[in-house]
Amino acid sequence: MTFFYHILSLPVAFLLIPLFTALSLFSKNKFKLLHHHFGFTPKIKKDDGKALWFYALSLGEVKAALPVLSIIREKNPDLKIAVSVTTDSGYEGAMEHLKMADQIFFHPLDCLPFTRLALRRINPDIYVVTDTGFWPGLIDQLHQKNIPKILLNGRISQASARGYLKAGSLFKTMFQQFDRLCMQNESSRKAIAEMGVNPQSIEVTGDTKFDALKPVTEEKKDYWRKVFNLEQSTPVWVAGSTHAGEEEIILTAHEQLKASFPDLVLILAPRRIERIKELSHLLEYKKIPFFLRSKLENSPPESVILLDTLGELAEIYSLGQLAFVGRSLLPPGGGHSLLEPLSNGVAVMHGPHVENIRPVAEEAHINGLSFTVNNSNEIRRKAQEILEQKELAGDFAAKAKSFISNKKGPSEKMAEIVLKTVQK
Known about the structure:
The chain is an alpha/beta fold and 424 residues long. It has 19 helices and 14 strands.
Protein backbone atom coordinates (compact mmCIF):
# COMPACT_ATOMS: atom_id res chain seq x y z
CA MET A 1 0.00 0.00 0.00
CA THR A 2 2.84 2.43 0.84
CA PHE A 3 4.41 1.81 -2.58
CA PHE A 4 1.20 2.87 -4.33
CA TYR A 5 0.97 5.88 -1.97
CA HIS A 6 4.39 7.01 -3.23
CA ILE A 7 3.44 6.42 -6.87
CA LEU A 8 0.19 8.36 -6.47
CA SER A 9 2.04 11.21 -4.77
CA LEU A 10 4.03 11.94 -7.96
CA PRO A 11 1.14 13.32 -10.07
CA VAL A 12 -0.46 14.77 -6.93
CA ALA A 13 2.71 16.80 -6.34
CA PHE A 14 2.31 18.59 -9.69
CA LEU A 15 -1.33 19.36 -8.91
CA LEU A 16 -0.50 20.59 -5.42
CA ILE A 17 2.06 23.17 -6.53
CA PRO A 18 -0.42 25.66 -8.09
CA LEU A 19 -3.27 24.74 -5.72
CA PHE A 20 -1.23 25.07 -2.52
CA THR A 21 0.40 28.24 -3.81
CA ALA A 22 -3.03 29.81 -4.33
CA LEU A 23 -4.22 28.75 -0.88
CA SER A 24 -1.06 30.11 0.72
CA LEU A 25 -1.91 33.60 -0.48
CA PHE A 26 -4.43 33.76 2.39
CA SER A 27 -1.86 32.69 4.99
CA LYS A 28 0.32 35.02 7.02
CA ASN A 29 3.59 33.11 6.68
CA LYS A 30 3.09 30.21 4.30
CA PHE A 31 3.37 32.16 1.04
CA LYS A 32 6.68 33.82 1.85
CA LEU A 33 8.04 30.43 3.00
CA LEU A 34 6.22 28.41 0.35
CA HIS A 35 9.41 26.68 -0.80
CA HIS A 36 9.60 24.82 2.52
CA HIS A 37 6.39 22.92 1.69
CA PHE A 38 7.90 21.80 -1.61
CA GLY A 39 11.02 20.36 0.04
CA PHE A 40 13.36 23.37 -0.14
CA THR A 41 13.85 23.41 3.62
CA PRO A 42 16.90 25.05 5.23
CA LYS A 43 20.07 22.98 4.88
CA ILE A 44 21.39 21.63 8.16
CA LYS A 45 25.16 21.87 8.57
CA LYS A 46 26.00 19.13 11.01
CA ASP A 47 29.80 19.48 10.92
CA ASP A 48 30.89 16.48 12.97
CA GLY A 49 27.71 16.31 15.06
CA LYS A 50 24.24 14.89 14.58
CA ALA A 51 20.86 16.36 13.65
CA LEU A 52 17.41 15.96 15.18
CA TRP A 53 14.36 16.69 13.01
CA PHE A 54 11.47 17.49 15.35
CA TYR A 55 7.97 17.91 13.91
CA ALA A 56 5.41 19.87 15.96
CA LEU A 57 2.27 20.33 13.88
CA SER A 58 0.71 23.46 15.44
CA LEU A 59 0.90 25.78 18.44
CA GLY A 60 -0.27 23.18 20.95
CA GLU A 61 2.40 20.72 19.82
CA VAL A 62 5.04 23.48 19.87
CA LYS A 63 4.24 24.25 23.50
CA ALA A 64 4.35 20.54 24.34
CA ALA A 65 7.76 20.31 22.63
CA LEU A 66 9.28 23.19 24.60
CA PRO A 67 10.19 21.36 27.83
CA VAL A 68 11.51 18.32 25.93
CA LEU A 69 13.68 20.32 23.56
CA SER A 70 14.95 22.51 26.43
CA ILE A 71 16.24 19.42 28.23
CA ILE A 72 17.73 17.98 25.03
CA ARG A 73 19.56 21.24 24.28
CA GLU A 74 20.88 21.46 27.85
CA LYS A 75 22.19 17.88 27.84
CA ASN A 76 23.51 17.85 24.26
CA PRO A 77 24.47 21.39 23.18
CA ASP A 78 26.18 20.11 20.02
CA LEU A 79 23.08 18.43 18.57
CA LYS A 80 21.58 20.34 15.64
CA ILE A 81 17.84 20.80 16.19
CA ALA A 82 15.56 21.40 13.20
CA VAL A 83 11.88 22.05 13.99
CA SER A 84 9.14 21.84 11.36
CA VAL A 85 5.53 22.97 11.75
CA THR A 86 2.41 22.98 9.59
CA THR A 87 0.33 25.98 10.68
CA ASP A 88 0.88 29.73 10.92
CA SER A 89 0.26 29.67 14.66
CA GLY A 90 2.75 26.81 14.99
CA TYR A 91 5.39 28.76 13.07
CA GLU A 92 4.93 31.93 15.11
CA GLY A 93 4.84 29.93 18.34
CA ALA A 94 8.04 28.09 17.41
CA MET A 95 9.81 31.34 16.54
CA GLU A 96 8.77 32.78 19.91
CA HIS A 97 9.28 29.79 22.21
CA LEU A 98 11.78 27.40 20.62
CA LYS A 99 14.89 29.57 20.74
CA MET A 100 17.06 26.48 21.16
CA ALA A 101 16.26 25.31 17.62
CA ASP A 102 18.89 25.85 14.94
CA GLN A 103 16.27 25.98 12.16
CA ILE A 104 12.48 26.45 12.13
CA PHE A 105 10.55 25.84 8.92
CA PHE A 106 7.29 24.58 7.43
CA HIS A 107 6.98 20.82 7.07
CA PRO A 108 7.16 19.53 3.48
CA LEU A 109 3.97 18.18 1.95
CA ASP A 110 3.91 14.37 2.01
CA CYS A 111 4.69 13.81 -1.67
CA LEU A 112 7.73 11.82 -2.73
CA PRO A 113 9.55 14.64 -4.61
CA PHE A 114 9.09 17.09 -1.73
CA THR A 115 9.97 14.80 1.18
CA ARG A 116 12.94 13.22 -0.64
CA LEU A 117 14.40 16.68 -1.29
CA ALA A 118 13.82 17.75 2.32
CA LEU A 119 15.55 14.62 3.63
CA ARG A 120 18.62 15.37 1.51
CA ARG A 121 18.78 18.93 2.82
CA ILE A 122 18.17 18.11 6.49
CA ASN A 123 19.94 14.74 6.59
CA PRO A 124 18.58 13.87 10.05
CA ASP A 125 20.03 11.25 12.37
CA ILE A 126 16.68 10.95 14.16
CA TYR A 127 13.11 12.06 13.40
CA VAL A 128 10.68 12.87 16.21
CA VAL A 129 7.01 13.68 15.78
CA THR A 130 4.81 14.82 18.62
CA ASP A 131 1.13 14.20 19.25
CA THR A 132 -0.70 13.35 15.96
CA GLY A 133 1.32 14.63 12.99
CA PHE A 134 1.53 11.48 10.88
CA TRP A 135 2.85 11.45 7.30
CA PRO A 136 3.11 7.85 5.99
CA GLY A 137 5.21 8.71 2.94
CA LEU A 138 7.91 10.48 4.95
CA ILE A 139 7.92 7.81 7.67
CA ASP A 140 8.46 5.13 5.02
CA GLN A 141 11.41 7.00 3.49
CA LEU A 142 12.97 7.41 6.94
CA HIS A 143 12.42 3.70 7.51
CA GLN A 144 14.14 2.81 4.24
CA LYS A 145 17.14 4.90 5.31
CA ASN A 146 17.23 3.25 8.77
CA ILE A 147 16.77 6.62 10.46
CA PRO A 148 15.21 6.15 13.94
CA LYS A 149 11.67 7.44 14.27
CA ILE A 150 10.06 8.28 17.62
CA LEU A 151 6.53 9.37 18.46
CA LEU A 152 6.45 11.56 21.57
CA ASN A 153 3.36 12.60 23.47
CA GLY A 154 1.38 10.25 21.25
CA ARG A 155 -2.37 10.60 21.30
CA ILE A 156 -4.81 8.43 19.39
CA SER A 157 -8.46 7.83 20.20
CA GLN A 158 -10.39 4.65 19.52
CA ALA A 159 -12.35 6.50 16.81
CA SER A 160 -9.11 7.62 15.14
CA ALA A 161 -7.75 4.08 15.35
CA ARG A 162 -10.85 2.79 13.55
CA GLY A 163 -10.36 5.45 10.88
CA TYR A 164 -6.73 4.48 10.35
CA LEU A 165 -7.67 0.81 10.06
CA LYS A 166 -10.19 1.68 7.33
CA ALA A 167 -7.27 2.99 5.25
CA GLY A 168 -6.06 -0.56 4.81
CA SER A 169 -2.42 -1.31 5.55
CA LEU A 170 -1.13 2.24 4.92
CA PHE A 171 -1.27 3.55 8.48
CA LYS A 172 -0.79 0.14 10.11
CA THR A 173 2.52 -0.13 8.25
CA MET A 174 3.43 3.43 9.21
CA PHE A 175 2.89 2.89 12.94
CA GLN A 176 4.81 -0.39 12.79
CA GLN A 177 7.75 1.47 11.24
CA PHE A 178 8.21 3.66 14.33
CA ASP A 179 11.06 2.59 16.59
CA ARG A 180 9.45 3.94 19.76
CA LEU A 181 5.94 5.17 20.54
CA CYS A 182 5.55 7.18 23.76
CA MET A 183 1.84 7.55 24.44
CA GLN A 184 0.02 9.99 26.70
CA ASN A 185 -2.24 7.46 28.39
CA GLU A 186 -3.34 3.84 28.57
CA SER A 187 -6.25 4.41 26.19
CA SER A 188 -3.87 5.64 23.49
CA ARG A 189 -1.52 2.73 24.17
CA LYS A 190 -4.32 0.24 23.56
CA ALA A 191 -5.42 2.04 20.39
CA ILE A 192 -1.91 2.01 18.91
CA ALA A 193 -1.45 -1.65 19.84
CA GLU A 194 -4.50 -2.45 17.68
CA MET A 195 -2.38 -1.37 14.70
CA GLY A 196 -0.23 -4.45 15.17
CA VAL A 197 2.68 -2.50 16.69
CA ASN A 198 5.16 -4.54 18.74
CA PRO A 199 4.05 -3.98 22.38
CA GLN A 200 7.70 -3.64 23.42
CA SER A 201 7.93 -0.51 21.26
CA ILE A 202 5.04 1.19 23.10
CA GLU A 203 5.03 2.79 26.52
CA VAL A 204 2.86 5.23 28.44
CA THR A 205 5.00 8.23 29.37
CA GLY A 206 2.38 10.90 30.09
CA ASP A 207 1.74 14.28 28.51
CA THR A 208 4.46 16.93 28.24
CA LYS A 209 1.80 19.63 28.01
CA PHE A 210 1.58 19.42 31.81
CA ASP A 211 5.28 20.34 32.04
CA ALA A 212 4.82 23.24 29.64
CA LEU A 213 2.05 24.86 31.69
CA LYS A 214 2.93 28.05 33.54
CA PRO A 215 0.16 29.49 35.73
CA VAL A 216 -0.34 33.21 35.28
CA THR A 217 1.01 35.32 38.15
CA GLU A 218 -1.12 37.91 39.97
CA GLU A 219 1.03 40.64 38.41
CA LYS A 220 0.29 39.23 34.95
CA LYS A 221 -3.43 39.03 35.73
CA ASP A 222 -3.35 42.70 36.70
CA TYR A 223 -1.67 43.46 33.38
CA TRP A 224 -4.38 41.62 31.43
CA ARG A 225 -7.14 43.34 33.41
CA LYS A 226 -5.66 46.68 32.38
CA VAL A 227 -5.45 45.55 28.75
CA PHE A 228 -9.12 44.53 28.80
CA ASN A 229 -10.20 47.47 31.00
CA LEU A 230 -11.63 45.13 33.60
CA GLU A 231 -12.13 45.81 37.30
CA GLN A 232 -11.03 43.03 39.64
CA SER A 233 -14.67 42.65 40.70
CA THR A 234 -15.99 42.31 37.11
CA PRO A 235 -17.39 38.82 36.49
CA VAL A 236 -15.74 37.24 33.43
CA TRP A 237 -16.04 33.99 31.57
CA VAL A 238 -13.95 32.81 28.62
CA ALA A 239 -15.08 30.67 25.70
CA GLY A 240 -11.93 29.42 23.99
CA SER A 241 -11.09 27.51 20.80
CA THR A 242 -14.70 27.61 19.63
CA HIS A 243 -15.86 26.25 16.27
CA ALA A 244 -18.70 27.15 13.91
CA GLY A 245 -22.10 26.57 15.47
CA GLU A 246 -20.84 26.72 19.04
CA GLU A 247 -20.72 30.50 19.27
CA GLU A 248 -24.48 30.90 18.80
CA ILE A 249 -25.13 28.47 21.66
CA ILE A 250 -22.61 30.27 23.88
CA LEU A 251 -24.01 33.72 23.06
CA THR A 252 -27.54 32.55 23.85
CA ALA A 253 -26.34 31.40 27.27
CA HIS A 254 -24.43 34.66 27.76
CA GLU A 255 -27.50 36.78 27.07
CA GLN A 256 -29.46 34.71 29.60
CA LEU A 257 -26.70 35.09 32.20
CA LYS A 258 -26.69 38.88 31.78
CA ALA A 259 -30.13 38.95 33.43
CA SER A 260 -28.53 37.78 36.68
CA PHE A 261 -25.08 39.31 36.17
CA PRO A 262 -25.49 42.62 34.29
CA ASP A 263 -21.75 43.36 34.35
CA LEU A 264 -20.76 39.93 33.04
CA VAL A 265 -18.15 40.00 30.25
CA LEU A 266 -17.58 37.16 27.81
CA ILE A 267 -14.18 36.87 26.15
CA LEU A 268 -14.82 34.86 22.99
CA ALA A 269 -11.84 33.26 21.23
CA PRO A 270 -12.55 31.26 18.06
CA ARG A 271 -10.10 28.49 17.19
CA ARG A 272 -9.40 30.09 13.82
CA ILE A 273 -8.73 33.79 13.71
CA GLU A 274 -9.96 33.84 10.09
CA ARG A 275 -13.52 33.57 11.48
CA ILE A 276 -13.39 36.94 13.28
CA LYS A 277 -15.33 38.75 10.54
CA GLU A 278 -17.99 36.01 10.55
CA LEU A 279 -18.39 36.31 14.33
CA SER A 280 -18.47 40.10 14.17
CA HIS A 281 -21.43 39.83 11.79
CA LEU A 282 -23.11 37.34 14.15
CA LEU A 283 -22.73 39.69 17.12
CA GLU A 284 -24.03 42.62 15.09
CA TYR A 285 -27.01 40.55 13.91
CA LYS A 286 -27.80 39.62 17.52
CA LYS A 287 -27.32 43.27 18.57
CA ILE A 288 -24.81 42.24 21.23
CA PRO A 289 -22.32 45.02 22.07
CA PHE A 290 -18.73 43.92 21.51
CA PHE A 291 -15.17 45.11 21.01
CA LEU A 292 -12.31 43.51 19.14
CA ARG A 293 -9.34 42.81 21.40
CA SER A 294 -7.06 44.65 18.95
CA LYS A 295 -9.18 47.80 19.18
CA LEU A 296 -9.96 47.98 22.90
CA GLU A 297 -7.71 50.98 23.57
CA ASN A 298 -9.19 52.74 26.63
CA SER A 299 -12.79 51.73 25.98
CA PRO A 300 -14.90 50.36 28.82
CA PRO A 301 -15.58 46.61 28.49
CA GLU A 302 -18.61 45.67 26.45
CA SER A 303 -20.75 42.56 26.87
CA VAL A 304 -18.40 40.57 24.61
CA ILE A 305 -14.71 40.96 23.79
CA LEU A 306 -13.78 39.14 20.60
CA LEU A 307 -10.20 37.85 20.72
CA ASP A 308 -8.68 38.61 17.31
CA THR A 309 -5.04 38.14 18.32
CA LEU A 310 -2.82 35.05 18.41
CA GLY A 311 -1.02 33.43 21.32
CA GLU A 312 -2.87 35.13 24.18
CA LEU A 313 -5.69 32.73 25.03
CA ALA A 314 -3.72 30.52 27.45
CA GLU A 315 -3.05 33.49 29.74
CA ILE A 316 -6.42 35.15 29.20
CA TYR A 317 -8.15 32.08 30.66
CA SER A 318 -6.82 33.30 34.03
CA LEU A 319 -9.20 36.30 33.91
CA GLY A 320 -12.28 34.10 34.04
CA GLN A 321 -14.23 32.67 36.93
CA LEU A 322 -15.08 29.88 34.50
CA ALA A 323 -14.27 28.80 30.97
CA PHE A 324 -15.81 26.86 28.11
CA VAL A 325 -13.50 24.91 25.78
CA GLY A 326 -14.73 24.37 22.24
CA ARG A 327 -14.91 21.78 19.50
CA SER A 328 -16.98 19.79 21.93
CA LEU A 329 -20.64 20.84 21.69
CA LEU A 330 -21.42 19.61 18.18
CA PRO A 331 -20.52 16.34 16.43
CA PRO A 332 -18.04 15.15 15.39
CA GLY A 333 -16.19 17.45 17.78
CA GLY A 334 -13.15 15.92 19.44
CA GLY A 335 -12.39 18.58 22.04
CA HIS A 336 -9.50 20.95 22.64
CA SER A 337 -7.18 20.96 25.65
CA LEU A 338 -8.62 21.74 29.07
CA LEU A 339 -5.19 22.19 30.62
CA GLU A 340 -4.69 25.96 30.21
CA PRO A 341 -7.80 26.98 32.16
CA LEU A 342 -7.27 24.21 34.74
CA SER A 343 -3.66 25.26 35.34
CA ASN A 344 -4.99 28.71 36.28
CA GLY A 345 -7.56 27.29 38.67
CA VAL A 346 -10.52 28.05 36.43
CA ALA A 347 -13.63 25.86 36.36
CA VAL A 348 -14.08 24.31 32.91
CA MET A 349 -17.15 23.43 30.88
CA HIS A 350 -17.09 21.41 27.68
CA GLY A 351 -19.57 19.64 25.44
CA PRO A 352 -20.12 15.86 25.20
CA HIS A 353 -17.93 15.31 22.11
CA VAL A 354 -14.43 15.10 23.62
CA GLU A 355 -13.00 11.96 22.03
CA ASN A 356 -9.55 13.50 21.56
CA ILE A 357 -9.18 14.55 25.19
CA ARG A 358 -11.40 11.99 26.91
CA PRO A 359 -8.87 10.61 29.45
CA VAL A 360 -8.06 14.07 30.82
CA ALA A 361 -11.70 15.19 30.63
CA GLU A 362 -12.90 12.12 32.55
CA GLU A 363 -10.25 12.46 35.24
CA ALA A 364 -10.95 16.18 35.64
CA HIS A 365 -14.67 15.38 35.85
CA ILE A 366 -14.11 12.77 38.56
CA ASN A 367 -12.15 15.38 40.54
CA GLY A 368 -14.95 17.92 40.16
CA LEU A 369 -12.85 20.20 37.97
CA SER A 370 -14.73 20.00 34.65
CA PHE A 371 -18.39 19.83 33.72
CA THR A 372 -20.16 18.44 30.66
CA VAL A 373 -22.84 20.68 29.13
CA ASN A 374 -25.02 19.85 26.14
CA ASN A 375 -26.81 23.08 25.23
CA SER A 376 -27.23 26.75 26.09
CA ASN A 377 -29.58 26.06 29.01
CA GLU A 378 -27.07 23.72 30.65
CA ILE A 379 -24.25 26.21 30.04
CA ARG A 380 -26.33 28.96 31.63
CA ARG A 381 -27.26 26.83 34.68
CA LYS A 382 -23.71 25.61 35.37
CA ALA A 383 -22.19 29.06 34.75
CA GLN A 384 -24.71 30.69 37.10
CA GLU A 385 -23.97 28.10 39.78
CA ILE A 386 -20.22 28.76 39.57
CA LEU A 387 -20.55 32.55 39.41
CA GLU A 388 -22.78 32.56 42.49
CA GLN A 389 -20.39 30.43 44.56
CA LYS A 390 -17.54 32.92 44.75
CA GLU A 391 -16.47 31.66 48.17
CA LEU A 392 -15.50 28.28 46.64
CA ALA A 393 -13.15 29.76 44.04
CA GLY A 394 -10.04 29.42 46.25
CA ASP A 395 -10.68 25.76 47.05
CA PHE A 396 -11.36 24.98 43.40
CA ALA A 397 -8.17 26.74 42.28
CA ALA A 398 -6.05 24.82 44.78
CA LYS A 399 -7.55 21.49 43.70
CA ALA A 400 -7.07 22.27 40.00
CA LYS A 401 -3.44 23.30 40.45
CA SER A 402 -2.76 20.15 42.49
CA PHE A 403 -4.29 18.07 39.67
CA ILE A 404 -1.87 19.67 37.19
CA SER A 405 1.15 19.46 39.50
CA ASN A 406 0.71 15.72 40.07
CA LYS A 407 1.07 15.06 36.33
CA LYS A 408 4.29 16.95 35.72
CA GLY A 409 7.51 15.14 34.83
CA PRO A 410 7.17 13.21 31.52
CA SER A 411 9.40 15.63 29.56
CA GLU A 412 12.55 14.44 31.31
CA LYS A 413 11.82 10.83 30.43
CA MET A 414 11.00 11.62 26.79
CA ALA A 415 14.12 13.74 26.38
CA GLU A 416 16.19 10.86 27.73
CA ILE A 417 14.64 8.47 25.19
CA VAL A 418 15.56 10.82 22.32
CA LEU A 419 19.10 11.41 23.60
CA LYS A 420 19.81 7.70 24.07
CA THR A 421 18.51 6.96 20.58
CA VAL A 422 20.54 9.68 18.86
CA GLN A 423 23.71 8.61 20.67
CA LYS A 424 23.51 5.00 19.40
